[in-house]
């Protein structure tokens, strides 16, 4: 079973993430940041990951530390759950539309953190959520999952739709990358023989 529970406690946040890469898309979130939870739910449902996140953060200041630290902790959980990466596909990609919006996400479970994030939101706030925080989430996630992640919003006029296509595509791309490939059973998908660092 590729599942793990990871906790991270700082003076700013206390976070616990439980992740099952071979789940059915069940999610349970308690972060105090509703729109962020709506986006995380897209990753779970479209990635067929079971994800449970409990976060207590300094929301009286703003959501920055909570969102960033959820990214860090989810990245740690992802790295541990995927293990030595033998037999996985390694690469994943997805294009996802939602009405007028279209996003592309491409991922490489390379062992090297790299983020290319190209989304120009049509407004700065979605409800009460500051869209700048998505970048903080993705940076925290890739740095601790040790993956290369390319995110491009190709078109969109509605910021909610832009964000939702990104997170749906992220779930589907990660799902493809972590899938076990019968032809690669027991083999690390790299000419170097390792996908660590």
TrEMBL record:
Signal peptide: none
Keyword DNA-binding listed: no
E.C. number: 4.2.1.19
InterPro entries linked: IGPD_sf, ImidazoleglycerolP_deHydtase, ImidazoleglycerP_deHydtase_CS, Ribosomal_Su5_D2-typ_SF
Compartments it resides in: Cytoplasm
Keywords from the UniProt entry: Amino-acid biosynthesis, Cytoplasm, Histidine biosynthesis, Lyase
Keyword S-adenosyl-L-methionine: no
Enzymatic reactions: D-erythro-1-(imidazol-4-yl)glycerol 3-phosphate = 3-(imidazol-4-yl)-2-oxopropyl phosphate + H2O
GO molecular function, one term: imidazoleglycerol-phosphate dehydratase activity
Any Pfam family: IGPD
Pathway assignment: Amino-acid biosynthesis; L-histidine biosynthesis; L-histidine from 5-phospho-alpha-D-ribose 1-diphosphate: step 6/9
Family under the similarity heading: Belongs to the imidazoleglycerol-phosphate dehydratase family.
NCBIfam families given in the database record: PRK00951.1-1, PRK00951.1-5, PRK00951.2-1, PRK00951.2-4
The protein, known as: Imidazoleglycerol-phosphate dehydratase
Source organism: Iodobacter arcticus
Lineage: Bacteria, Pseudomonadati, Pseudomonadota, Betaproteobacteria, Neisseriales
